[in-house]
């Protein structure tokens, strides 16, 4: 049995703050003594299930978030750039297909989260850097191709997207997040002495490190995003 | 002319996250090369003016905030303890009188913010540690007494509370915060090269330090709150 602390990261590629948390947690999984479990989840379901409203509905908050993301992107070295029409991309088009696709990729993994990590990153890059679609099968294929999946793997993942099994898996991950107490993403759940400790957002890493007895070293550089 | 960077902290003693930011900024004003300006403001006015809703209305968010504040209180060494009835204390009773009182104390200061700092801290301690009233004149007097104000100063501050001058001063500080783009407190406004940079909440200190070219050293210990 491993003595590593288990940390789950619930995320949706439609959420820019999730991208920050995702990159930071992926970097730190090599630094801290943790087992990181990537949990693709559906933000729309969590917002509806918790009764939460998108923060961007308040004009001053929307303006602030743009500047905040801009600064954080530079500081964390994650190439975030908001799509031209944020409400259209985030809420009208949404991420149900994309997160089913990531769930399908996870379903196909034999061990580890390597492909889930790479495919998720490519999807974020599409919507939150290139301002491109993440709802159509062709978009999902392209992201998966860039992430290194083979043609047959991509075909299989697209088929799986429509399976009851994958739909249910995404739904139950979303319900699990709600049961933990989610009201948005990213949500980091640290399992400490059999008890889940929740950290919402991408601004509790220093506190998280303190809680798990590790050291926060600031945003580490990372090869996977630094080259953009 | 001083070369110190001017940083304004807009706060309301009804807001627990403001207390965290207040203590951290007061500690760092001795560490960073900054001129900290305390800006007592009315949270109710900013929520109404920006169209924002209290986060605690979403049940999962309310639960999370309780745990979050608990952990942050320990980590930042600020003795936060929620009042038994948070909605009653925060929204029904509110902080209009308290913030008028702090504004009056500021109006009476000859130079510096020393009394504003001490009175604000005592008011936070009342509502967010001792679960006591901060709306009645007797409550305000008691807090001011603990903060070291003399009887005549307290009498004068209570009189000033009802003056048009102080009412207007609080109102215009609140409007100024809204003009900067506030949608809640704490709001830290850093003046960098003549441009205001906004930081909302008590979780951007590391980023703030980076932006002003200073170093974040974590939550420093502080004599004023450590003894509780």
TrEMBL record, chains A, B:
Keywords: Transferase. GO terms for cellular component: mitochondrion; peroxisome. The active site is at residue 15. One of its GO terms (biological process) is glutathione metabolic process. Signal peptide: none annotated. CDD domains: DsbA_GSTK. Belongs to the GST superfamily. Kappa family. This is Glutathione S-transferase kappa. Residues 6-211 form the DSBA-like thioredoxin domain. The keyword Membrane does not apply. It comes from the Eukaryota. Its EC number is 2.5.1.18. It catalyses: RX + glutathione = an S-substituted glutathione + a halide anion + H(+). SUPFAM superfamilies: Thioredoxin-like. GO terms for molecular function: glutathione peroxidase activity; glutathione transferase activity.
């Amino acid at each position: 049995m491993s003595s590593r602390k288990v940390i789950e990261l619930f995320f949706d590629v439609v959420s820019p703050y999730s991208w920050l948390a995702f990159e930071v947690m992926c970097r730190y999984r090599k630094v801290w003594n943790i087992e990181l479990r990537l949990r693709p989840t559906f933000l729309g379901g969590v917002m509806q299930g918790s009764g939460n409203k998108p923060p961007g509905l308040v004009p001053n908050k929307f303006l602030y978030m743009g500047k905040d993301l801009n600064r954080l992107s530079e500081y964390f070295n994650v190439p975030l750039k908001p799509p031209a029409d944020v409400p259209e991309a985030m809420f009208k088009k949404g991420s149900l297909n994309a997160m089913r696709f990531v769930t399908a990729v996870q379903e196909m993994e034999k061990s580890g989260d390597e492909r889930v990590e790479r495919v998720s990153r490519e999807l974020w890059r599409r919507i939150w850097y290139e301002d491109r679609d993440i709802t159509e099968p062709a978009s999902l294929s392209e992201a998966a191709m860039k992430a290194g999946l083979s043609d047959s793997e991509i075909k299989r993942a697209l088929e799986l997207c429509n399976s009851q099994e994958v739909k249910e898996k995404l739904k139950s991950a979303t319900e699990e997040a709600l049961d933990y107490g989610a009201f948005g993403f990213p949500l980091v759940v640290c399992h400490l002495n059999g008890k889940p400790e929740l950290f919402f957002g991408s601004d509790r890493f220093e506190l998280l490190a303190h809680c798990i007895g590790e050291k926060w070293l600031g945003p580490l550089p990372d090869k996977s995003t630094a080259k953009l």
